[in-house]
Specification:
The chain contains three helices and 14 strands.
Length: 240
């Protein structure tokens, strides 16, 4: 069956109209969503890591006040545990926070159960220049990072003097003191010996939260030697 020239012209004209309409549609989409797409491609990407070795975790000293006839300052040995937060994206991350959302402890059957009395809070950024704790980092530029304090451990013999003690039953065991934005009256920032999972979320004003899980092991033993402490006294690793 032959196709008349008029029919062929109509088909070509219809295809041209459809092509023009499609091109116009995609041009409108590009105009509407170009900026959003570019922001999505260039958004910050916050990554969390930890190594049970300097500079993330190391032995240092802790200064505290002793109330005698006049306040005096004393120092004790201390192990500090810090997390490293790095921006692997292409845009500066603004108002960055690290939030401990959940603490769970390993039971005798190997399962992890929530510590119900734990109060979820933000952690403090390390090396803050002011006396007030820094909870929101002003910004982290691309390919840059900052340390965030997770917590510290002091010798059990001086823990009462330092002010980190909560229970007399722990007087001979090490306790991890989580460096939360405040020390709650419930003392739930004190973590006694055991194996724990900490659910940590890292977010910024212009970056959605990313969830990570840390596994913390506290044997309750104190060692003055740093390598031995990080082998037989405590363990810390990122598992997700």
């Amino acid at each position: 069956m032959a196709i008349s020239p008029d029919t062929e012209q109509i088909d070509i004209g219809t295809l041209a109209q459809w092509a023009g309409a499609t091109a116009t549609f995609f041009a409108v989409l590009v105009a509407l969503f170009k900026d959003e797409f570019l922001r999505w491609r260039r958004k910050p990407k916050l990554c969390l890591s930890v190594s049970l070795a300097p500079p993330d975790c190391h032995k240092t000293t802790l200064t505290y006040v002793v109330q005698k006839t006049a306040p005096t300052y004393e120092t004790v040995d201390c192990y500090y545990l810090r997390l490293w937060v790095e921006n692997a994206g292409k845009t500066r991350a603004e108002r960055v926070q690290v939030f401990v959302a959940k603490l769970s402890r390993r039971s005798a059957d190997g399962s992890f159960k929530n510590v119900d009395q734990f109060l979820p809070m933000n952690l403090r950024w390390s090396h803050a220049g002011s006396k007030a704790p820094e909870i929101f980092a002003e910004g982290i530029s691309p390919e840059m990072g900052r340390h965030c304090d997770l917590g510290h451990v002091v010798n059990p013999t001086v823990r009462v003097d330092v002010g980190d003690d909560s229970s007399a039953s722990w007087l001979t065991d090490t306790v991890l003191v989580l460096d939360l934005e405040i020390q709650p009256n419930t003392r739930s920032h004190l973590v006694p010996p055991g194996v724990y999972h900490l659910t940590v979320r890292v977010a910024a004003a212009n970056c959605p939260p990313r969830t990570h899980v840390l596994e913390l092991t506290l044997t309750g033993k104190w060692f003055d030697d740093e390598p031995q402490m990080f082998t037989d006294g405590l363990g810390l690793k990122l598992i997700s």
